[in-house]
Amino acid sequence: MPTPTLTWAQLRDVKCAELEGAADGWGKSSNRADAARDRIEQQLLTGLRDTQEGEAAQAAVARLRQLGRNFQYVYTECGLLRTTLNSLAHEMRTQQRALTEALEDAAALKFTVHANGSVTYPAGGEGLVDGAPLRGGTASSSGTSGLMPPSGLIAPNPHAAKAQDIADRVCGAVRAAAEIDWRYAGILRRLKAEEGLKVPASTWKDAAGDAAEVRDAAGAYLKDAIPHDASPEARRDWWAGLTQEQREEYLAVYPDQIGNLDGIPALVRDAANRDNLQLLIGKLEGRDDEKSMTQLAGLREIDRQLGAAAKPGEPPMFLLGVSDEGNGRAIVSYGNPDTSKNVAAYVPGLNTSLDEDFAKGDLKRARDTAIGARYHDPSSAAIAWLGYDAPQLVDGFSSLAVAGDGRAVDGGARLGEFTAGIAATNENSDPHLTAIGHSYGSRTVGAATQQGGGIPGIDDIVLVGSPGVGVDRAEDLGVGKDHVFVGSAENDVVTKMPSKQQVAAGAMTSLSGPFVYVVGDIADQGDDDLWFGKDPASEAFGARRFPVDDGPSVIGRGGVSIDAHSQYFDPVRDPASANSIALIAAGRPGKVKTEEYR
């Protein structure tokens, strides 16, 4: 991406209403083309077929069909332009709002914001020696606002920190706006028709899910050249070797493939996936099947969060993957995983899919982890990784009892490729990477460690709410047993699932047996085997167990509760667990307190 040349004055003066007005114009053109296509298909073609015969009639029908396809193309392209301009206006307005708030704060404090974004502040405070006001100065942003937090090294003048904050906010808004401008400029340049409006059938895809502008064989060439079967390192190098024009073309034509390709830089993936997100929403809108409606709700919530201005102190969001494959895919990072020294990938488990609960609950877990980790080390990011199909609830809690290893093995392979991509694009010489597995996600992390020499780049592993990971010793996970951490709540029934051998021996009498088994306390308390192997919280497993809250009782006044399974990341309901996870994610595992084994 080229160095941004946008100034804060230019951002301030952008007329978003004019962009929206242009979008309305393209929308009207789209509607007219749609009406013309309808008339051709519903009136002209029908009348011609009903009343005319012969070669001339057949030739006329062929020409009308071609004309109808052309109008359909105009309808699609004009609709894409409308959506692009509206989205551009929306994102620019968000950055304008952030800039305006920073400028207003500067004016209230009587600071001066210069054309280059630096901020001059007056004298203030008192000197330690003579009590005289400390000199004023000028604060300038490092240019990484929103990607890396300030170092905390500031002048003693009390105005200095406020000026630095304003400078960083101005810089962050301008840089974000420049990235938006760059991204949309490339898309808009590609949204153009060939002379004569010749639309070969090979270029057609789903109108609601297609942003490709390529009209000829070059489209196939671009698609075939994407290195899907290469290593993440090779993909990184492939992208680096492209010209700027080629990159813009790929982003415009194949945002879904570039955005989901491990080894592509995070900023590029985020730009591609934000476009792809809109296309997926358009693709699913209007469908009435349960899967589409469920995924649409999740996508809309992710879109809402991406469009919302980040709260002070919260890391920026990066959309590293999104797809309607299987039960849905979504990979969201809080903090830039390419510039952060510490990166944690959280793998959710049982009953997770691309839905509104994931977009609200699981993303919050990653966000809370990122915020907690950045408290200990500002150069930290945390990722919610839904890159596989987790088992879904079928008969209450019985899904775990009937779940096998297949989805974990498949997910583990995908997780390994993802972390290899993170390691390949991270700009630090020795980044610290953490894999966090929750519930069945811990089994997926365990499976990833058994493929090809471990999870690429991973230094520490965290297992919470685990029904077992597929191995019986922490040292078998490939990072050293002192780098495997376990959180297991006393009232979390998933962590007390019976072993397969116990089920086979008749300890269970029905599909709901695992739940009855735990609640009834029928098990031999000396047995530390779970459904997927040795209990990670047991002494025999040998991991480092950190303190967690017991969680709500399984059976209480309100009836049956499994809430103890879902609060490990919550800094309010389980601060001890959340802080331990944050310490590990921040590369501070030595500061984690431990407790006795189960």
Describe this structure in words.
This is Alpha/beta hydrolase family protein. Residues 136-146 have a biased composition (Low complexity). One of its GO terms (molecular function) is hydrolase activity. The protein is an alpha/beta fold and 598 residues long. The protein contains 17 helices and 15 strands. The strands form 4 sheets. An 8-stranded mixed beta sheet has the order 4-5-7-6-8-9-10-13. Strands 1-2-3 form a 3-stranded antiparallel beta sheet. It is globular and about 90 Å long. Residues 144-152, 200-221 and 507-526 have low confidence and may be disordered.
Biggest sheet, open or closed, and with what strands and sense? 8 strands, mixed
Overall mean pLDDT stands at: 81
Show unreliable segments.
144-152, 200-221, 507-526
Give the C-alpha Rg: 28 Å
Organism: [Kitasatospora] papulosa
GO molecular function: hydrolase activity
Protein name: Alpha/beta hydrolase family protein
InterPro entries: DUF1023
